[in-house]
């Protein structure tokens, strides 16, 4: 049996389970779900387990295909790309600053959290600027030809 058929049947089973769970929600009714925490837990919890299962399955499939692609392709280029990304994150972390902040509602955000948020934003800015620059360079090269 091919992987496509297995995934098709798995998607069908997950769809049927989701349809059954959705039917349970409809039969329980909105008012009953809002008023009863026990009913809410018994109806919503299975949905969460299905979502967790699907998420784990997708992560597993992505990891399998990424690892398969690594070993069938050029691993040197892949490792250089991952290393460049890690270097960008490290540079962004070193450049970003972090001081403890107090929100409007009085909640305190730690300096470490502020530091990582800043690093994430700087990483995004570096990657976005690099992508834009490469698109411009590619466009200029096409105009020259």
TrEMBL record:
Keywords in alphabetical order: Membrane, Transmembrane, Transmembrane helix
Residues spanning the membrane: 7-27, 47-67, 79-96, 116-137
Taxonomic superkingdom: Bacteria
Protein name: Uncharacterized protein
Species the sequence originates in: Salinimicrobium catena
